[in-house]
Design a protein that fits this description.
Blueprint lengths: L6 E5 L4 H14 L2 E8 L7 H9 L5 E5 L1 H15 L15 H15 L3 E3 L8 H12 L4 E3 L1 H4 L5 H10 L15 E4 L4 E4 L29 E8 L2 E5 L2 E2 L2 H14 L4 E7 L5 E7 L1 H17 L2 H20 L5 H14 L4 E8 L2 E8 L7 H4 L11 H22 L1
Parallel strand pairs: 1-2, 1-4, 2-3, 4-5
Antiparallel strand pairs: 6-7, 7-12, 8-9, 8-13, 9-10, 11-12, 13-14
Helix pairs in contact: 1-7, 3-8, 3-11, 4-5, 8-9, 10-11
């Protein structure tokens, strides 16, 4: 295999799996390895990944802060669509993969690498998301997916290989973890092991970003979020960068028990999977943006966007971020979002996000139209003809049924 691959860019976390992958790539392919560690706001000290890569003999090491790009160019465009997968999942892991893949391809081109590698398993969605993005951005790239190739069948075997190759293993990583977790600025997910039985209630220790609602303060937090052309720009009138806005909303949502989702989802690869998702800031933002749309979008535009949402969410979940159909949908969604400007007021309380007000210079809400008091702008008698025209086909169908 040494003739096939000269240099590979590895998506590297510094954990046990990717450290074993690093050494395995060197042993199996005889190639140079470039490590790439993305800071997407996972809350970990990432310089340790650099030090570990150096210790393993890696010369080309990338540790990139991508938090602003992640929120600005991936999370916010997705939120403009209102995307939510299977009625519950705000796509926190799904939306991170195309950015990681994009940067890997950029590094491959910068360093002259002819291959990329990831640590996703052969059972999950992430392998699909990474590889669809790789091929969309660089069709001739060689992709190495160790979990589909190597002989390791258990965690014990991984640890044995690590010990044989002097790869440090923290004591807390030697046992079988109760679940696997993936985190970024939008969310943290927990899956597997102790969570595999969908009937078993998760232990509270699974929650790392959110105070459980039943333990949240018995006190209301009131906030405002300002939007411009579809994206949030300020919290409580304070202008913030995209990443700073999501960070602030994570703090506010997390302390108030907002954003815990326990679902069984349909993976793209064909199986069902139970997961616990903590998305505090995203949940607050989702509710606020919907409220902003309610007074700024025309009914037809709003309903059309809702119809597109399910398809958009499926494309993101399945890994088609760089596909032309997602870009087509994005163009339509972004055009509709141009009107979504204004302020939403919210109360946060024990897992609840309650909208208490919304205002916009582009508001289509007309108090003179909807008032129950006397008005001079709407003739209620006009409704009779409107109703009869819409009832015509129903009357015809009923007559036909009666004759038959």
């Amino acid at each position: 295999m040494s003739d096939d691959v000269k240099k590979v860019v590895l998506a590297y976390s510094g954990g046990l799996d990717t450290s074993v992958i690093l050494k395995w790539l060197q042993d199996t392919y005889g190639c140079k390895v470039v490590t790439f560690t993305a800071d997407l706001g996972q809350g970990e000290e990432l310089e340790s990944a650099r030090r570990k890569a150096e210790m393993l003999g890696i010369k080309e090491i990338y540790v990139d802060d991508l938090r602003e790009e992640f929120v600005r160019d991936f999370v916010f465009p997705m939120f403009r669509s209102g995307a939510i997968y299977e009625g519950a999942y705000l796509l926190g892991t799904s939306i991170a993969r195309p950015l990681i893949a994009k940067r890997q391809i950029e590094i491959a081109e910068e360093t002259g690498a002819d291959a990329v590698a990831h640590g996703a398993t052969g059972k999950g969605n992430d392998q699909v998301r990474f590889e669809l993005a790789y091929y969309a951005l660089k069709p001739d790239i060689r992709v190495i997916a160790p979990w589909r190739e190597w002989e390791f069948k258990s965690r014990a075997r991984l640890i044995e290989y690590a010990e044989q190759n002097q790869i440090p293993i923290p004591k807390d990583k030697r046992g079988e973890p109760p679940y696997s977790q993936d985190a970024n600025l939008l969310h943290i997910s927990s899956e597997g092991k102790a969570l595999e039985d969908p009937w078993v209630e998760p232990d509270e220790s699974v929650y790392t970003r959110i105070v459980p609602p039943w333990k949240a303060p018995d006190q209301v937090t009131q906030i405002t979020i300002d939007f411009e052309a579809g994206d949030p720009v300020a919290v409580d009138s304070e202008k913030l960068t995209p990443a700073s806005i999501l960070t602030r909303l994570n703090e506010l949502g997390g302390v108030n028990g907002i954003g815990i989702t326990d679902i069984v989802e349909n993976r793209f690869v064909g199986m069902k999977s139970r997961g616990i998702y903590e998305t505090p800031g995203g949940t607050v933002l989702f509710t606020a943006r919907r409220a902003m749309e309610s007074i700024t979008l025309d009914r037809g535009a709003m309903h059309q966007k809702d119809e597109l949402m399910a398809r958009y969410a499926e494309l993101v979940y399945n890994g088609f971020w760089f596909a032309p159909e997602r870009e087509m949908l994005q163009a339509a969604i972004d055009q509709a979002s141009e009107r979504v400007t204004g302020t939403v007021r919210l109360k946060l309380y024990k897992g609840n996000v309650i909208v208490t007000g919304r205002k916009s210079p582009n508001s289509l809400y007309d108090a003179a139209m909807v008032t129950f008091e006397e008005d001079a702008v709407y003739n209620q008698g006009d409704a009779e003809g409107f109703i009869k025209i819409n009832a015509l086909r129903l009357k015809l169908l009923k007559r036909l049924k009666d004759r038959g």
